[in-house]
Structure formats: structure tokens, C-alpha cells
Amino acid sequence: MSETTAGAGDVAATAAVAAAGWRRAGFAGAAIGVLAAGAAAGVAVERLTVGRGMRKKARLALDASGPYGSLRGQPGRAVADDGTELYYEVDEVEPESAPGPGAKGSGTGPRRRRLFGRKAPGPVTVVFSHGYCLSQDSWHFQRAALRGLVRTVHWDQRSHGRSGRGRDQAQGVPLGIDQLGRDLKAVIDAAAPEGPLVLVGHSMGGMTMMALADRHPELIRDRVAAVAFVGTSSGKLGEVNFGLPVAGVNAVRRVLPGVLRALGSQTELVERGRRATADLFAGLIKRYSFGSRDVDPAVSRFAERLIESTPIDVVAEFYPAFTEHDKSGALPAFRDVPVLILAGDKDLVTPSTHSEAIADQLPDAELVIVPDAGHLVMLEHPQTVTDRLADLLVRIGAVPAEAP
């Protein structure tokens, strides 16, 4: 049997398994589960003419060789208002890089001057908030570039990454973006209780920052030195068509409530179906992650691993919060600080028109639309995103202009 025929047989067999599994959970559940995942994954090997065993070996090889997501910092835990433990990591500034003549340091963090017996304000801290079905590791490239130059905090949103399962959600309490804003406040209080802040958020992370501003405008006014919104939205996500025909989108929305109940109540079955249909769904998921064809396979595989680590019940319980999200009224809180708004021109999840809508509310903001970029623009075009963030940090004096 030829390799092409064998590959087609694999696809047919996988499709048969998928059909049997998804019929029990509802095929619409499969479709919405993938779309609701925020298109947070790519696929390393997508040629269906390659045998399943070969594809598995390729993934394992990429997992072993790819350095992405390997950066670690000083760990810490914050506690949300409902008792959920939120995991974060801090990358401190190298002692010799800390500003201030005659400063004294312990060697474990930035040195600070003492003025008249009082500690000077803390250093600038850049707080990175990740998107739906991702983790703090999705900022790998930006974290690597800024390491040692500026103090950074990377945290995992509730039920994602290394953070605990949302306690209220485990008890059946619906999740809202407002809760994520309160979570971000808890992380700031624990990891950066003093000193100026720069807030950076991708997708759901940007919405989290808006929720923080809505509840704590005084924090934005008193401590936030700059803001970066990456591939995010201030509302009207219920109108996004994901690049699908209008009739198809409307059909999906009609069955959404029942599908979400099915996804939440049949986690084991759905996860089995997810594994059985990994190859078939990988291409679709990649479409919602990236805008160009020449994505590094190791980066694609890294994105795929991020979504694989997000349980389907978490996917299901977070999704309704996005259709209800509307924080356009919170945007004026950012008008007095430098703002970067960046999006991919081929983003099908939070289209660039949503970034333009944010820019309309913040006319002094810098708006950057990246060509040939999808939703995971910080992984697909890392240098572009890093350069724009660096420019923002240089503008407020958080990093020296001559820094590499």
C-alpha cells in the first residue's frame, strides 16, 4: 500500500472514530469546542499523506527540541477573592542593570536608593496577562528579550497553566471578565505592590486589564505608566463570524447553550474525541491561530501543546464570558498614559477592526496592524511585537534606549 493511500486510510479511520464519539456529545459541540478554544493552537506536521505514527514521532521530536515555554522565574502565588490560587513568576532586573547611583543591592533583585531613610519607589514592573486557553508561556519570545532589562511578572489566569481551578466555577458559579480583573488586582498586590506598572495583555488578557480599570480606575491613574493591548477587544465579540458564512455562524449560536451544557457534563468523552480527532482538528485550529503559511513548525507545535493542556470543561465555562464582555466604558481610564494597540490583519478571533475600535476610544494611542498575522501574533511575528513593546518601554524610560 502506498504512503498516500495509508495516509488517506488513517484519515478515514480517524474520521470514523471522531464521528462516533462526537455524535454522542453532539457534533456541534466539537465545532464550538474548537472555535471557542480561541484558536490557540497550530499543528507541527499537517500533511495528511504522512502516517499517524510518523506524525506522532515528529511531534515528540519537536517537543524535545523546542525551547519554547522553558523560561522560568521566581515563583509566587496570589489568592483571588474566592480563594482560587493564582500562580505567577517574577523575572527581576539584573542587579548591575538597576538604576540609581550608589545603589546597594543584595544580589537577588534590583537595587534601590534610600532617600532620607526611606526606600525609593520600586522599579517599573511589566505585568503580562495571557489569552484564552493559553498560559504565561505564550509570551516566551517577549520574556526572553526583556529578561534582565526590566522587572516582569507573568501569571496564569485561573484554571489555566499552573494556577488553581476556579473555586467559584467548580461550584457552578458562572465566570465573568470582571472576575478576571479582580484576579489581576490580586496578582499585582502580591507581586508588585509598589512602583509604576506597565500592563500588557493578549486577547482575554487585554479584556482582563479593561476589567481591572473598570473596577480600579485609581490604580490606573496612580500607578500605570503604559499599556499594551495585543489582539484583544472591548466588546461585541458575539458579532464575530470567525471567517464563516453568516448562516453557519447563526446556526452555531442557536445551539450554543445546549452544546456548552454537553461539553461541561461529558468531559471524559469530549477529551477522548479530542485526542482521536487531533490530526483533523489541527489544521482548523491552526487557521484560527496564524495568518501566514511559513510558521516555524516548532512554534506551531508549542502553540498546540498550550491548548492541549486546557481541559475542555475550562474551554466551555470561559466561553460565555466573551459574548457578554463589554468594557468600552472602561477605556477612558487609559487616556492619560501611553498606549500601544497591536493586532494581526488576519486575526479571525478578535479581528483587527476591534483594535481599531479601541483606538477610536484612545485617539493618542499607537495602532499597529501587523501584515500576515493571525490571533497568536506574538508567536507568529515575535520580533515585531517585541520591537513595539520595547519602543513603548523606552518611551517611558523603563529600559535604556541603547538596550539590545
Walk me through what this model shows.
With 404 residues, this protein is an alpha/beta fold. The chain contains 16 helices and ten strands. Helix 4 packs across helix 16 and helix 9 packs across helix 13. The radius of gyration is 22 Å and the shape is globular. The N terminus is likely disordered.
Helices and strands in order, then pairings?
Layout: H1 3-25, H2 27-36, H3 52-65, E1 74-79, E2 85-91, E3 114-115, E4 118-119, E5 125-129, H4 140-146, E6 151-155, H5 167-170, H6 177-191, E7 197-202, H7 204-215, H8 217-223, E8 224-230, H9 246-265, H10 267-276, H11 278-287, H12 297-308, H13 312-324, E9 339-344, H14 352-361, E10 366-370, H15 377-380, H16 382-395
Parallel strand pairs: 5-6, 5-7, 7-8, 8-9, 9-10
Antiparallel strand pairs: 1-2, 2-6, 3-4
Helix pairs in contact: 1-2, 1-10, 2-9, 3-12, 4-16, 6-7, 7-8, 9-13
Q: Gyration radius, to the nearest Å?
A: 22 Å
Mean pLDDT across every amino acid position: 80
CATH superfamily of the largest domain: Alpha/Beta hydrolase fold, catalytic domain
Q: Based on CA inertia axes, which overall geometry fits?
A: globular
Largest sheet: 8 strands, mixed
Under the CATH scheme, which class of the largest domain?
A: Alpha Beta
Query: What is the count of helical runs?
Result: 16
Structural class: alpha/beta
Measured as a percent range, the helix fraction is 40-55%
Q: Which CATH architecture of the largest domain would you pick? A: 3-Layer(aba) Sandwich
List how many beta strands DSSP finds.
10
CATH topology of the largest domain: Rossmann fold
User: What is the chains' assembly state?
Assistant: single chain
Q: How many structural domains?
A: 2
Give the low-confidence spans: 1-50, 97-120
Taking strands numbered 1, 2, ... along the chain, how are they ordered across the largest sheet? 1-2-6-5-7-8-9-10
Q: Roughly how many Å apart are the termini?
A: 54 Å
What is the succession of H and E elements? HHHEEEEEHEHHEHHEHHHHHEHEHH
How much of the residues is beta strand, in percent? 5-15%
